[in-house]
Amino acid sequence: MRIIRQLATYVSVLIFVVLLNFWLPRLLPGGPVDFLTAGGDQGAIFVSEVQKQAMLEYYHLNNTLWVQFTQYLKGLLTFDFGLSFTYKSPVYDVITLRLPWTLLIVGVSTLLSIIIGLALGLLSAWKHQGRSDRLTFVTMLALSAVPEFLLGMILLIVFSVNMGVLPLSGAETAFNASEHVIDRVIDVAKHAALPIITLTAGSLAGLYLLMRNEAIRVIQEPFIEFATAKGLGNRVVLLRHVARNSALPLVTIIFIRIGGLLAGSVLVETVFSYPGIGKLLQEAILARDYPLLHGLFLMMTLSILCLNMLADLIYPHLDPRIREAHKGDKS
Amino acid sequence: MLNRIKFSLLMLFCIAVIMTGCSTNEKISGSTQVTSELATAKNSGKATSLTTDSVARIRMAWGNSGYPSPFAFSSSGPGGFLRNSFLFDTLTWKDENGVVPWLAKSWSVSEDGLQYTFDLEENVLWHDGNRLTADDVVFSFGYYQMHPFMWTGDISQIQTVTAIDDHKVKFTLNQPYAPFLSDLVGIVPIIPKHVWQNVDSPLDYRDPSALVGTGPYILKEYDEKSGQYLFTANDHYFKGKVLVKEVAYMNPENQLLALQKGEVDSAMTYKYSEVQQLEKEGFDVLKSAPTGSAVRVTFNLDHPQLKDKRLRQALAYALDRAEMAEKITGGDPIVGNAGIIPPDSPWYSSSVKQYEYNVTEAEQILDELGYNKNASGVRNGLKLNVMVSSNSPEAQIMQEMLKKVGVVLNIQQVDAATFSTAMGENKYDLAITGHIGLSGDPDYLRQWFLGEASNSWAARGKQFDHATFQHLALEQMSELDTDKRKEMIGEMQNILAEELPTLVLYHRPFYYVFKSSDFNGWFNTSGGIADGIPLWDNKAALIDEDN
């Protein structure tokens, strides 16, 4: 019964998002053809009426909204969103070309921020009231107050502009003549280093603070006292008892973070001009590229919904209290 | 209980591993694929590097211009057209002296200017080895009727194209069309019949054959995600030896830094302060001549107050455009011609009325129009909006200058798509735009003001309501006598200067920053590349015709 109710919630959210997905981009002022023919900073072109009509027809923009909507729905079912207006190639291809790069930087930084955040939080809680706790706590608070793009720009100025040790932008050296795979990997790593550091720093503080608070609470519980009384070593108490129990509320947060993987990071990718999903999203919005926006939003929604659902399913297994509550619910 | 928790944690861990595993997997497969491509690149590089006195590779900076096939390149900005012109050729082309034969080695025009007969070069090979014939030319223009070429080049002027023999083509026009050689057959690329005759949907046609042209370069790699191109020389080019073996277009976030850090070899910019800085650091600089560009204010002629030309003239007098140009462009500022055509264009008429900075004149007209100043020096009932699509120093300077004559100007900044829509729907008072294309054939005056050009900055769908101007605009198009045509264009400039549908603030030169030690063959194209692009990556500069 509970599962059905939950499923219904997910399905209705999905339907709502699918509808919103179609209408939201179209509520923006201006349309794609205006953008395509407007030209950039350095010049624009003359588009004759004939050319403009051809363009409208090609992109099915001269159809009524209702026809466009049914086509959109049909596309959803077949995962065919049509052609991106700006890239003139299938939305699916445009996205899959950029997705690995986003997964690389956001994935690594999510992993790093989880590991570092949880470890530091735990340590901090263990040394609660001590000097090292104070220091990390204040540092993390300060870090959480710095906006991502500012941090990114500072790193860029220091490491790329002044010291010149890391590249200025992009994901890899273009048309690099190196033959060795190792060189390629080093090149990619060099380009990814600063975005990863920025993203990690950006989401580290939140995880740290949450972990620290939870751990401090757990440490005060009687069962920890009991464990210490049993004569268990610090390590065992910390890892087996404190860590495990305080990490529980973080599971949801971690799942949300993973869901955010596919959304990329608009700010960081823009600062480093990194060719990922976030930058693509920004370009698509500016260009009013409806099909691309549909594809991107749907991908993000689906991934977040799926992971949420997974968290919902896994959580009772992790936390006996919730499981018991559900059992009570059933009877 | 404990086991269950263990199991769940294990599961969680597995999911985490799978998630991250996905990303690393893709990363590795991505990089190996690139390396294999690079390995082949290296091999072919070895083969060509044996030839001496040619340049191995030049890296230029420019943004993403889309997939460079004739149907998919990006039409916002000249980059897409130029990338395409490396792969595909046209019947004529332009170099530093003007129109030159290209795929057509010679041509003749009938007395009435309605028929052009072109003799094609005979040893032209498509990149796939097939031979170019007159059939390809006939096919190209037929194909563009169904699938428009998304750049300029008004093919509706053409009535028929027929092949006389394998290397002779005859064009028949609907009416004499003065810019035919430069702005029609000099722009529309010839595409291979054997490829495109089977393609119904050219925009998303991504088969490698979509890039088979006759041009001096072959696209070796297009890095779509970053918008970067690597072109390699076509060793069998009919026009001669290609001097630069590889041309790469890079897309750095910051051009200036990229030049300084050696990530690119050359770049194009209109920022004079950057140019000065780079010159000090040992770069060479070429300035666009003719400038070919304008930064201008478009007036909404339907606006209840602005539709009175006296108000537009008053605003023109109130703006110290010389100072504005000096402040913004530095160098040798070129104040905007009230008649639009830049002073360094051969079509410029020097007798056109100009609006020197004159506050008294401006105040007088504004008083006459009944916009009286109140106690605080602000004119009653005159409050205007100026729309800009990017952070515009021009708008801020205008605001200050107009304040001096008591006119309140409100700056309204919107994004590019909103800007275009507002222009198209005439929902603005004043708008500032900067663009190129003013040095080529002056037929653009007709296109702008007769509602032919469906673009954002030419009052789309709107005609400039002036009978004499409209008449002249149509007449000049068919006038084949250059002197007579110049007279008409001069008259059109007079009308534009008097009526001021738009006011050019200044003409903005572009600068090419490069190192002559890398390659020194660059030149300013006469009247700009194709329809007046004031840039330097003209393929004619990269070819040695004697070899």
Automatic annotation (TrEMBL), chain A:
Keywords: Membrane, Transmembrane, Transmembrane helix, Transport. It comes from the Bacteria. It is found in: Cell membrane; Membrane. Residues 99-311 form the ABC transmembrane type-1 domain. The keyword Ubl conjugation does not apply. The chain crosses the membrane at residues 7-24, 101-123, 135-159, 192-211, 247-272, 292-315. InterPro entries: MetI-like (IPR000515), MetI-like_sf (IPR035906). Belongs to the binding-protein-dependent transport system permease family. This is ABC transporter permease. It comes from Paenibacillus glacialis.
